[in-house]
Amino acid sequence: MPEYPEMENYRRLLSQHIINLPITGVTVNRDKSLNVEPEVFKASLTGVRIVFVERRGKNLIFHLQDGKRLLLHLMLGGLLFYGTEEERPNRTTQIELHFGEQILYIMGLRLGYMHFLTVKQTEEALAKLGPDIMDRKLTEDKFALRLKGRRGSLKSVLVNQSVVAGIGNCYADEIAFEAGLLPSAPVQGMPDETVSRLYQAVRKTLSDAADIGGYMEMPFMTGDTVTGAYNDQCKVYDRGGETCVRCGGTIRKEEQSGRKVFYCPDCQHEH
């Protein structure tokens, strides 16, 4: 599932290419991806411009010139591609936003969605989200307060979107590795020094991953060499059985509360 780095990479690229371009057409191939009738969706968007693309957690919010919003969540397997009909990947698309000859293809929305909402409805839809993990207002002290009194393992708390929004399976493991902590480390009673180390690991891991495009499997557009570059940079995620780049130990793969976890038992600890 796309997490902060992937969605932030998409936000940056979309902001470069579609802002203030009129939507010249809309194609809907999966009605269930919408919250309104396809004809209403098409009529509401045709001729309208996207004036700003915002990211909140794993969500993208397209601000329309008429004040309405498009709320996109890719969920598991969702991908974006921007280009012409000739350039498009050989994949099924659920929604297509046309900008003249250039088209934003939204694909892989088996569970994901794009909803047409008012500002109030958008805020209501996102009301249960915790603060965005990379929001400048989420200082180290405020991050510590979000963890204070929480029960459960480090990984389960990091991926809880009501605690902080934007981290999923992959980066929870990468952050734990950067901090030298086990994904199973208990959050309750975590020493202040450890929380500080964790906060720095969050900032470094996510900003580095976003800057090199996250781990998406497909480029955003023809000629895009950035998107997906982090896939080869993962230190532990999906590296079960491989050698730890830090200590030479062996990366272990286990299951924790129904989630895959990857870690090095030799250089990751509880504190």
Automatic annotation (TrEMBL):
Protein name: Formamidopyrimidine-DNA glycosylase
Catalytically driven reaction(s): Hydrolysis of DNA containing ring-opened 7-methylguanine residues, releasing 2,6-diamino-4-hydroxy-5-(N-methyl)formamidopyrimidine
Gene Ontology terms: biological process: base-excision repair
Span of the signal peptide: none
InterPro entries hit by this protein: FPG_cat, FPG_N, H2TH_FPG, Ribosomal_uS13-like_H2TH, Znf_DNA_glyclase/AP_lyase, Znf_FPG/IleRS
Gene3D superfamilies cross-referenced by the UniProt entry: 1.10.8.50, MutM-like, N-terminal
Domain Formamidopyrimidine-DNA glycosylase catalytic: 2-112
UniProt family annotation: Belongs to the FPG family.
Cofactor(s) for this UniProt protein: Zn(2+)
EC numbers for this chain: 3.2.2.23, 4.2.99.18
All residue ranges annotated as the FPG-type domain in the record: 235-269
Key words of the record: DNA damage, DNA repair, DNA-binding, Glycosidase, Hydrolase, Lyase, Metal-binding, Multifunctional enzyme, Zinc, Zinc-finger
MF terms (GO), sorted A to Z: 8-oxo-7,8-dihydroguanine DNA N-glycosylase activity; class I DNA-(apurinic or apyrimidinic site) endonuclease activity; damaged DNA binding; zinc ion binding
Pfam families in the record: Fapy_DNA_glyco, H2TH, zf-FPG_IleRS
